[in-house]
Amino acid sequence: MFITDKALGLVETLGEFYPEARWQRCTVHFMKNVFGHVPWGRMRKVAAMLKAIYAQEDREEAMLKAASVVKKLRQMKLAGAAKVLEEGVHETLSYYAFPSEHWRRIRTNNPLERIMKEIRRRTNVVGSFPDGNSALMLVAARLRHIAGSKWGTKQYLKMERIEEMKKEQSAA
């Protein structure tokens, strides 16, 4: 499974090189796309409505909730936000095919974003590099530090649960 924003070249390439893989559109990036059509004064209300979609117990319920939110957005005269939600919400619900214990961790690409933010912070301190090799050395050193630290040794997902789910599905 790949979790990304909707960079079209990236999404198309994933399908070409990994045809069996699932693609999950990052819910945080998607919500930001919806917020681009919402005035500041209504942001909290719309955010609560969007979060309710992702709090549902299964994909079907999430799609029903999304349809309800689209209707409410249109009633609030937020047609642009309603259109973005209606056209893209199904791309953000791939995580429902996985064990519920994993949902919170695979809805977004925040862990990768966090690493990239740390790398940007470190490279911005240096400013300019004499060559590409020195930038690569700094980034590699930071990634080695992350991999070797307590943060890098945490188990992010329990893969055994996916195997159990596959056995349950094949038995049914």
Written overview of the protein:
This protein is mainly α and 172 residues long. The protein is 65% helix and 3% strand. The chain is built from 10 helices and 2 strands. It has helices at 8-17, 27-35, 43-53, 59-75, 79-88, 103-106, 110-126, 132-148, 150-153, 159-171, and strands at residues 2-4, 23-25. It has a two-stranded parallel sheet. The radius of gyration is 19 Å and the shape is globular. The model has no long low-confidence stretch (mean pLDDT 87).
Overview features:
172 residues; mainly alpha; two-stranded parallel ribbon
The computed structural class is mainly alpha
pLDDT averaged residue by residue: 87
- Please trace the helix and strand order, writing H or E for each element: EHEHHHHHHHHH
Shape: globular
Which assembly state applies to the chains in this document? single chain
Strand order in the sheet with the most strands = 1-2
- Cα(first) to Cα(last) distance is 23 Å
Proportion of residues in β-strands: under 5%
- Helical residue percent band: 55-70%
The stretches of 5 or more residues where confidence is low (pLDDT under 50) are none
Radius of gyration: 19 Å
Number of strands: 2
H/I helix tally = 10
Main sheet?
Answer: 2 strands, parallel
